[in-house]
Amino acid sequence: MASLEETVAATESPRQKAISSSRFASFQGKNRDERMKFMIEQAEGRAKKVRLGEGVKSVFQASMDDIGALGIGMQLYFMLTKYLALTFLCMGIVSLPAVMVNSYGHGITSKMVDPLQLAYSSIGNGGVNSDTAASVRSCLPIGDIDCTWKTVNTPLTSNPKVVTWIVTLCDVLYSFIFMCFLFFYSYRAKKAIKEHQNKHLTPARYAVMVRGLPTDATEKEILDHFNDLYDLNKRETYRKLWFGCWWGRRHKVRRSRSKKAANRNVVSNVDHLEGSTTINKHLYLNTWIAEVSIAHPTGGLLRTYLSTKSLGDKRDEIEQLIKALESEKTLAPGEFKPSDEKLVHSSKEKLKKIQAKIDRKDKKIAIIKKAISASEKAHRKEKKMREKKTKHSTSRDKLSAAAHAAKAAATKTKLPFDWEACECAFVVFNNLESRRRCMQDYRQSTHWLAREGQPEELRFRGTFPLIVTSAPEPSNIMWENLEVTKRGRFYRQFVTNMVTVLLLIISCAIISAAQSTQEKFANKTPPDGLCDQSLPALYYADTSYSLNAQKKPIPWTLDWYSEQTCTRGDSGEERYYVAYTNKIKNDLDSARLSYGEQYPDPARCVDPCISEKSTQECNTLPCFYYDDLVKGEGMSCDAYEASNVLYCLCSTALTNSIKQYGIVKGPKKLWETKPCRGFTKDYLIKNSFMLFAAAIVVIVNFLLNNILRMFAVFERHSSESTRTIRMAVRMFVAQFLNTAIIVMLVNAAFGLGKVKITLFMHMYVVAPIYRWRKRRSIRTQAKMDKLYAGPTFDISQRYPMVLNSVFVTMVFCGGSPILLFIATVASAGVYWFDKLSILYLYSVKTTYDEILGKVTLQMLPWTLAMHLGFSAWMYGNTDLLKGSVLNLPILTDKLGKYDVLGQHGFLVKIVFSQVMLMTIMCFAVTFGLLLYIIFGKLVFVVLRQMLTFLKQIALLPVDLCYALFTKDDEARAKEAERRQQKKKKKAPVVMLPEFTEPFIMSVSRRYRPDEGLGYQRCRVENTYELTCVWPKDTVYENHVVRSAGDRKLSWETMQAPVTSYAIEANEKYRYPVKQILKAWKRVQEVRNREHALEPVRLEKVSAEVDNKRENRVETAVEATEIIAIVTETKSEEDSEKAPAEVTRQAETAEQADEKPVENCPKEE
What we know:
- By secondary structure, the protein is mainly alpha-helical.
- Among the domains are: 25-199 and 800-879, no CATH class; 203-297 and 418-472, RRM (RNA recognition motif) domain (Alpha-Beta Plaits), CATH 3.30.70; 300-372; 525-672, no CATH class; 998-1048, no CATH class.
- Strand 13 and strand 14 form a beta hairpin.
- Residues 308-371 form a coiled coil.
């Protein structure tokens, strides 16, 4: 028999344990450095709790299972980046032959290539550039380029058609690799989701979300409803629910799924509810329900207080600082310095100011103002009416007073917000089997027709049909939006989409304006070499313009002679006198004159009077000496406009002005040169538009990022995962259209170096130094926790980035396969650096569910369809790839008439063999995706049944032959031996983890526990059981203490930021709930004053009252009776401080039986 001391120790509550070993008790006898060291240890432990592998593993030791412990959404994200890196690497290796043959093309000149020279590896380098073909020196027989494009010079082939097929077949191969990736990732993702549900425990695995409850439903009623239905001591039954309705009686389950489970226990420990202010934990002992959390309609008040949470956090921090300083003063008076005393005084002053701000904001909250002002107004009106009452009041007056009291009672529940009302509820079962039975019974509850025929025993109070669905994770719930309707959310999403489209239209308009401006400026640009070569040669009348007869250099500098006057042009425009400073203008050599077919009558423009609007066509010197210069030396005969001379003058002057006066003052100084004003204006407009066009992509993406985040709050999503995936998809679509479709090259920045180096420096250099400096001045545990916690890992920013990279790569890799290697580096960098960040820097405070991965799985196959479509379009460019034409007159003659793009349309390109191949593949993928979306589930079910049937048919001859040729005696002996061994072998015991009990779970023999996290595997008879112990002493925020070696409860093994569905368990909502409870108390006090009316007594009723009026009297009296009872109940509850959640109907009935009503009129 246990002694008295053992009995007292055994029954000691967790809170009493916490008090005996609290933070202040642990500080007893310690100096300031020891106290700081203790706080640092606690902060590091809490920070590691919400990081990958609880911060005890390296980046190479942390596996996908460890990432999955933070949420299946996180695991699917890292699986995607990892597999994408490997897939793009394989695709890049396959594309190497295409990269090689592209690099040997001549379609891109040195003036067109990008700074990184990646354009040489694209199909844009195919064929022969027109400038190259016009140069006799480059083409055969003088040069080494076949400008007729009949042959190509590549290591693999010399036939340009073979080059086309090399590019096309490489595309087909790496498209097949990407399709294999889609199937593989889909299989692995679905398998990971299934394994996560079996391996990783989360609160959502034990919980359901219940809607359809009446507003007056209480915690006790909901608990009793589900506790009675899913008592595991009762035999399992179910309804077949034909067509989802009530048809069919309840059947007993012959083979229950949990029949072999050995542990079926009721709740015996409520430590998970310790410190909860909205849940009565004593209700759950010895029940099958671990928790019931009710969501209340707050009328937007919760959202309002969330916006003022920063002030509340500051107030709490200062209060904790004052408390810590005063405790230090008590514990170690000798170490308490004058600066500490000054800090206490200044902190109290700050606390007063912050509290004043909070009070001012509370007074401005419309809901509370409305509730209190309306109640006070009604109270004043009632008081005024009571003052007017006289002793000789008639029955009519008394009747009016009673009717007013009835009206007040009727409007009592019409409040802007009601913290006692029920919006929905989250029910957490202690056993997985209870939840399975619940989901089985309510499997059709989301359909309105099934709810109409819901069985009576499943209805709440036998009347209200319930909607029961899987609950989101506690950290995933957005409590402030649970009361928002689907229609309201749809309207908000519509506004968001309109703003996104408007921003994209603005971006498209600006980029189009920039391109048109650039084209206009390019039209005014002279041919290459005109200013420094062709124009001096034209004036000198010979190609030896640079040296005179004495072999001295001749300066060729254009200048404007303002003192010289010119007549106005044909249109009245002003002309300027522009000539070379050397005054050279030689006549042409008549003996060398010869003209080509392109310009049989060339024009030599050497008139010094020039206008900006002059469009006269002029020719260079080779057009006059065609035989000598063009045919003999391979020079090109070009044409230019007379106004291009001003461009030569002003471009040189601008360069010199910028060198002399700078990039800002240089163009201003050039404005003083009158002929160059038009050039300066065009130059500034062109560069401004180009800079703005380059920046508009980044600006719009930045605006979309911030606007969509603001509108995510406006859309009022009910869970963090839904909000994240909606925002991520919208941001991805907007960024993809803005980056890839609208402008393809402006924002082509795939480099990761700067960003990743910055992140690396922050993790390993900046953050440790900052923590080391800051921790010396921290005196409270809360601030120390924030210092070591790190920023929150926001997956909503990473999914759009990854999806945008995948879509951009797949759309354009057909034309530029080098993008595949860039995408490989990008995906690998994202995987490893994000993994490092959640190990050492970021904290994961939200458990994302699988909706993020499922939406990604639905979107990724469309990248393959888009890739094949874009590749088919690009491969149809006959200037880049030479292909074989198919004999399809129907497409070219008849269908070609309907192509709006005419000769450049797709129907003209499809006749080429390579385009036809890519087009067929594109249509096959698109058609398959549409079939899967429409008939996917049905097709897979039919295919599965067909495969099973075919397998049985294929194995039937084998079974028949085995039965015919096997001896009966031998078969019977083997069967008897098998049955005997089966009897001897004892079936293993199945242990399922229970939410509130010590963690224990049956595992396989090959299972390897993670000992670093405290898991241990032991064998009991023929069963392997997995348990978990605390590796070190731990103190929870609610002061529950765990010692090293103690067994963890099941909810304690969950690596989830929040393990309870109580709203205040989520740190985000603690301050708002605290303020709402205060506001609710104020509203209740006003309501109590309003309805604390004097009982209306109708002592004498005159005989003149007829039957109708008599009925009105009885009705009014009944209303006043209810008011009297409720008032008395409230006063009793306030005086006795009863629990917040009780059954209202039972209380009212009991009090009505115990105390007779005294407000009824006396019978005479």
